[in-house]
Amino acid sequence: MEKNVRPADMKRINTPELAEAFIAEQVKEVREQVGDKKVLLALSGGVDSSVVAALLIKAIGKQLVCVHVNHGLMRKGESEQVIEVFRGQLDANLIYVDATDRFLDLLAGVDEPERKRKIIGGEFIKVFDEEARKLEGIDFLAQGTIYPDILESDGVKAHHNVGGLPEDMQFELVEPVRLLFKDEVRVVGKALGLPESMVERQPFPGPGLGVRCLGAITRDRLTALRESDAILREEFAAAGLADKVWQFFTVVPDMRATGVRDGKRAYDWPVIIRAVNTVDAMTATVPEIDWAVLKKITSRILAEVPGVCRVLYDLSPKPTATIEWE
Ligand code: XMP
């Protein structure tokens, strides 16, 4: 049977029992494939790579080597959660690379969105490649490829913008969730004991906050972006909106607006709130968020995030706007 084609009679995994059966089967298959060899995985902390990591830890324990690259463009608390869950709770063999300075130095002064994406993707490969070369005896590369990746591209996680590893780094692939749809990956993740906040995570672009800190990224605006985004996420969760709105985040443009603080004029940044509902991200609508929730978020951002004087809510559907601002 073609290994990348979902069999017509494969059941949709939508119960803990079906997830357990899938996990047992994959554990057996991975052990057969890998034997006593080592497997490398780029663990971003996204749903797919996290579920693959948890599954492989169950199957082969410390034979799995996870590399988490913090490109400095993660949301608040994300890298910390990866370390806490995988090193702290699952006792994973995890290499943590804080490459923040490398990425931000390379991105300094670069304001063209596609160029920013290329730099982030290219540097990610470089850092991962450097880490892989330091390790010995790795024969396999695990990937969080899921079925839509196979259907939409040719099995490459194209939307991760990471291109591929250099040609002299040849590994056999281990892709245990390649026949699953996203909702099934989440059910399997829950059955593996991963926290809800990791498994139910909203989509987050590969270039991360890099495409939400508009224009040339600066560290101070990036901090304002990360802090305002954390407040938005906290307040949406408190208002019961976190699992009702498909994607929501803040954006900080590279411009200042007039404000007044302590009786003096100030030129500070605006923060834009973006929230959308969509089925496939091709078109999107803007949810009607309760005024009281928006006001609370606004007052918290203005009080808690230095350098911000205004908060705006983006009412634009896709089309004509895209979901991201860059
Ligand atoms: P747009 O902005 O095109 O976004 O309406 C549609 C969906 O794609 C995500 N997105 C990206 N994901 N790398 C990614 O991995 C990217 O460069 C990228 N750009 C947009 C966006 O978050 C939304 O879910």
List the SSEs and their pairings.
Blueprint: H1 16-34, E1 38-42, H2 47-60, E2 64-70, H3 78-89, E3 93-98, H4 100-107, H5 113-134, E4 138-142, H6 147-152, E5 172-174, H7 182-191, H8 196-199, H9 219-238, E6 247-251, E7 257-261, E8 264-276, H10 291-304, E9 308-313
Bound molecules: xanthosine-5'-monophosphate (XMP).
The site of xanthosine-5'-monophosphate has 14 residues, from loops.
Structural class: alpha/beta
Total helical segments: 10
Report the uncertain regions.
158-163
Give the overall shape: globular
Offer a few descriptive terms.
about 325 residues, alpha/beta, five-stranded parallel sheet, about 40% helix, globular, binds xanthosine-5'-monophosphate
Could you characterize what this model shows?
- With 326 residues, the protein is of the alpha/beta class.
- The protein is built from ten helices and nine strands.
- The chain starts with 15 loop residues before the first helix and ends in a 13-residue tail after the last strand.
- Helix 10 (291-304) links the parallel strand 8 and strand 9 (308-313).
- It is globular and about 70 Å long.
- The strands form two sheets. Strands 3-2-1-4-5 form a five-stranded parallel beta sheet, sandwiched between helices. Strands 6, 7, 8 and 9 form a four-stranded mixed beta sheet that branches.
- Bound molecules: xanthosine-5'-monophosphate.
- Xanthosine-5'-monophosphate binds next to loops.
